[in-house]
Automatic annotation (TrEMBL):
GO biological process: poly(A)+ mRNA export from nucleus
Superkingdom of origin organism: Eukaryota
Transmembrane segments: none
InterPro entries noted in UniProt: NTF2-like_dom_sf, NTF2_dom, NXF_fam, TAP_C_dom, UBA-like_sf
GO cellular component entries: nucleus
Sorted UniProt keywords: Leucine-rich repeat, Nucleus
Annotated GO MF terms: RNA binding
Keyword Nucleus part of the UniProt annotation: yes
Organism of provenance: Phakopsora pachyrhizi (Asian soybean rust disease fungus)
One Pfam family cited in the UniProt record for this chain: TAP_C
Subcellular localization(s) per the UniProt record: Nucleus
Upper lineage: Eukaryota, Fungi, Dikarya, Basidiomycota, Pucciniomycotina
Protein name: Expressed protein
Span of domain TAP-C: 107-147
């Protein structure tokens, strides 16, 4: 099938349709699982254009592909329930301190760091970094590190 190219000045002020596609794939050589997002902007084809003459009612105005590390599709599941809680914040010397995360200075945080160090064979610095980047959720830190 020939490629459809957006015509210049197409759909100035006309209606467009936004299409977002999310998915995952496995790289052939490394077998690494990746996620992707592909975003299309579709617009009506001009009546006498080559696109219309070939039987296509619309053209792709914009096409953007983003490839990233794997992320679970649970985020796009309509039945997924996300519970957000407001963190307990305090201002100390102009710095905002979040109090409800375990953090590396708490006993729970230190336990998580030691457990991650042991399980993943990481040093303390990288264990703390991994846990911080995953909101101090141990299972999420392990899952994302293994990808």
């Amino acid at each position: 099938m020939p490629c459809l190219v957006s015509e210049p000045a197409l759909n100035n002020g006309g209606d467009v349709v936004y299409v977002n596609v999310h998915g995952e794939f496995k790289e052939v050589n490394s077998l690494t699982v990746r996620s992707f997002d592909r975003r299309f902007v579709l617009g009506a084809a001009e009546p006498a254009s080559a696109t219309t003459l070939k039987g296509w009612p619309c053209v792709i105005i914009s096409d953007q592909l983003t490839v990233r590390g794997y992320s679970s599709p649970i985020a796009w599941t309509p039945t997924a329930k996300v519970t957000l809680s407001r963190p307990d914040l305090s201002l100390t010397n102009g710095t905002i301190v979040v109090k409800n995360e375990p953090g590396e200075s708490t006993i729970e945080g230190q336990r998580l760091v030691k457990e991650l160090m042991k399980l993943m064979k990481l040093n303390e610095r990288y264990s703390v970094k991994c846990l911080k980047q995953n909101g101090w959720i141990f299972e999420l830190a392990v899952k994302n590190f293994e990808e």
